[in-house]
Predict the 3D structure of the following.
Amino acid sequence: MKVKELTIANFRRLEQVSIECENTETVFVGPNNSGKTSATAVVRSFLGGKDFSIFDFSVGCVAHIDHFGRTGEHNDFPEISLDIWFEVNPDEIEYGRAAALVPNLSDDFEELGVRLSLGVDDFEALRAEFQRAFGDEIKTDGGPRLTSFLNDKTVFKRHFKTSFFALERQGDAPASPSMLAQAEGKKLIDGLVRVDFIDAQRNIDDSDSGRSNRLSKAFSDFYEKNLEQVEAAQEARAVIQENNKTLTNHYEKQFKPLLDMIGGLGVPSANDRDLRLVSTLSPETALKGNTNLLYIDQAKEHELPEQYNGLGFKNLIYMAIQAKHFHAQWARTEKDRPLCHLIFIEEPEVHLHAQVQQTFIKNIWEVLNASAESENVHGRVPQLLVTTHSSHVLDAVDFAKVRYFSRCHLADDDPVIETVLNATEVKSLRDFQPLPTLDDDDNELVSSDEALAFLRRYLRLTHCDLFFSDAAILVEGAVEKLLLPEMMSKSAPELKKVFLSILEVGGAYAHRFDELVGFLNLPTLIITDLDAGEATDNHKACRADTPNAVTTNAALKHFFNLTKVEELRALTIHDKCKNSPARCVIFQTEYETDGIKLLARTLEEDFVYQNVAKFRAEELSIDIEVSADTAAAYQEIYDHIRSSAMKKTDFAMQVLANSAEWAVPSYIDEGLKWLEKTCAKA
């Protein structure tokens, strides 16, 4: 039996989300403050003993809660809920523990569901207490707010309780809940699922402060909590008892003068018992504060204390100990062992270098598989839910196991009016399927599966940070990527406050990434080249102002369904942008110098035309003398940039190293300003 899906409602920014869970590991990714940690927190609050507070309700719930405070109407009063759907095999399920969830024993079914819901226990009692505190002021607009009154944790806890429901759903219809008795629901959940957490804030350092976790303490905690094994307990007690005898004899010798002196004071008296100091070490306490983890060089017989090794090494060991411990505790539950086991691991990449981050998933499974063998529960391992900001961890995970947390508007918000993205939607990359690429006759050039395989390979090769960004910029090549930071400083300085992913994808592949960033709902700027070619069959490269010229850029043909340069030149910035999802595709536009219109086919050309006065004055250089005659310069610049003598990366580096002021190509300036404005809305 496995957890198949978690559905969360009204918890923080998780207004209404469903998260499909893999049988092995499920990886949560997304920008900062997109709700990944909230998905862990709601499970901890319902199943891990952490208290809720009024601040856990999503922002969209606040008005409904305050409305009840003013009017006493509670029909729309929100509840925080967690639906857990279990994937089952009806031939193997233990009906004794799950019978309350089975809708009809005669039906065929592959899933069972349970809902945990936090809501008001007694509406009349809550409002009466609110009114006693503030009188009739609560009925006025602008008066005391119920949400503020519930800031008091004691008040909140007094009026809110968790209820349990069995769930049934048919097709796409909403789940139908049936309430369970409180004791029955609690027992049911305990028998179905155990949840453990390896937190992000592990604070593994060398101090003994209350916030730190020394590795030696982790080992001692593991030892203490796993003494339930009879063999281990017997052996430990035998060793400790022998040491107790030795220490007692030692104490008797060392403390005899002191005890004799006390006896001379008449204590104890003749009618009292004698004093004796004995050693009372127990296996449960022997390790506490009495062990140190050492790092030993066997060859040189050199020992170093725990603090002399790196934090990354400690973090890795700590997570392994915790994972092994949690699994062992689950495996050793003799009575009513939970049918499912989930372990949440937050930010495993803390202190780990890139190579170790990449192998983390593989290493943790080796620990858990070994634990299953040693505990004689072969193949029965937990499901892992991993929250990460690391592209290296993501690199080692199957694409389909990724769940992307995307910031979005609340369901009731008008996106035109509201600028703040207060909610989250969760997307399974298992559902992402790009469209096949077709030629002009609708023949398939690249299949859907091939397109998906390409994206997976690219993301692995580049350790792409796309899944952790606020926006994306797709560029043609190295020159754009090198110059872009300085261009942003000049054209759109506010973009420096935005977490951007800049992908070098080339004009032939930008449209493949468009589907992915659209699926992720990321604002995206695509900077590509006009790539003019002759209208003949071989489309030989030509100057962009050549009559009847066509574009050879696959991205432009895909996005605009146009091939003629003349038609592309006629497009406005509004034609190049769309709103949902936000995307803008930009390419070279015309300049007019000395009455002559200049149209570039590449960035390098466009950069020179935009700054032609600087190149003529040799404040900037492309290693040729730029003619004062604009018509001649047009052809000279085009020919040189097309030639093998033009080293594009060197050109970009020279521009960056030069102290001369230069202007951003107008089409890039326009695109960056669009992205800056778009990100400001998000």
About this structure: The chain is about 40% helix and 20% strand.
